[in-house]
Amino acid sequence: MSNPISRIYYADTNTFFKLFNYYPETIFRSLWSNLDHLASTSRLRTIEKVVEEMHDPRFDEWVNARPAIVDDIGRHQAAIDCLTEIMRDLPRFVDHSKTTDEADQPLVAIALTRNRETGNDRSLWNHVVLTEEGNKKARQTRLRIRDACDHYGISCVALIKMMELENWRF
Q1: 71 phi and psi angles, rounded to 5 deg
Q2: Distance between CA atoms of residues 54 and 110, nearest Å
Q3: The CATH number fitting domain 8-159, selected from 3.40.50, 1.25.40, 2.60.40, 3.30.1050
Q4: pLDDT digits (tens, 9 = 90+) for 73-97
Q5: pTM of the entire structure?
Q6: The Cα angle at residue 15 between residues 106 and 125, in degrees rounded to 5
Q7: Ranges assigned E (strand) in the chain
Q8: 12 within 8 A of 47, measured Cβ to Cβ
């Protein structure tokens, strides 16, 4: 499978949770080698809020060794503007029962910002949200990451799909 556009993945908390709890580096060495390659080439990224949400010393050690993968949305006015747009356009994407800010909205905002920087041709949009979340269930009122990505035309994939897109074989 050819890959004419190099995708840049913005990983959600649940993706890192899955990696660190179900794919230990001691067993899945080639997976972690591939992830390190993505990280070292700035193709695996996340945001500060995801780092704050992860409560795992293994993750802390891993991300601290790769500080360049962490985007601080607060340093990007365009991302802040996108976040404001998302909050306005998709009020059901906010979980009002939580007392702290979530990573979901800023994660979508940074991917949307980076994609818009490439222009209006969505076929060139290469910033992808990486999450294990599904779409909103029929009885749920709160939108999920995939719903917001669908709304804005952002590609959103699960870890296993990323492995397929990157043509990784184990």
Answers
A1: -95, 135
A2: 19
A3: 3.40.50
A4: 888 899 999 999 999 999 999 877 7
A5: 0.91
A6: 55
A7: 8-11, 44-47, 70-71, 127-130, 156-157
A8: no
